Amino acid sequence: MCEQMLLGGLPLAYFNNVTSVFPRSPLMACLMFGGPKLYPAGRQSYYGKTFGMHGPNDALYLWDRWLGADRTRPSDALPDEQSVVMRQFFSACEAEFGRPLLNKVNGPIASAHLVGEVLDNSYFICVQRDDLYLAQSLYQARLDISGDVARPYGLYHESFENATDPAESVCRQAKFYRNFATTQQARLGADRFWIVSYEELCENPQQLVDRAAQDVLHIDQSQVREVAPSKVRDQQRLDDGLFNQLRSWIENTKDVVDSG
Length: 260
Description:
By secondary structure, this protein is mostly helical. Helix content is about 50%, strand content about 5%.
């Protein structure tokens, strides 16, 4: 949602769904089929997956080249040769597209300090949700994506991966994500790693769009489009017993989970 709001309000480029069909030649494929649309409309997605040939794509297959094929663990380091290739690729993207590139994907957020060192003109936006509703969403994702509530969805960490109770596991996972974002922001600085409230983003997305236009793109306001608010989806979706179990753990546990 955040990605689509920014794309709808700012003159940005992105990897579209065509690139997933041609993962070895993504830039050429994107350009051959019309390239990324300017100010694309639409906010529908399923766990970040959008519809249509020109919808934005997370391009995980590209990041696997540099961050490794294991998408559940943050990379510890980027070899020098990989850093050079990554820098060359994104320079080519900006040259071909003629405008800055936006990509919504978890891998670079998890390895922001590594990516940020290689791409020194990159910025990171991390949307942070209320812990309770994030835990609920993570629990639902385990059912929808993994088909197993005991198997974490997203980044793995021993603090919640080996928990015997799935409810406690997703709560620990939510806290891990919050602490992880704080750690990355401390590494890169608040000017390059932004932590944005999900609730505030839904209610006033224009604030983030205008900030990006001014602080990152340095463009005239005439190039910025108005972005409509979105409904805050912080509501109970699990049964009462399970939801209250999540609430109790979040409210009564002050554990600080190691963010690595």
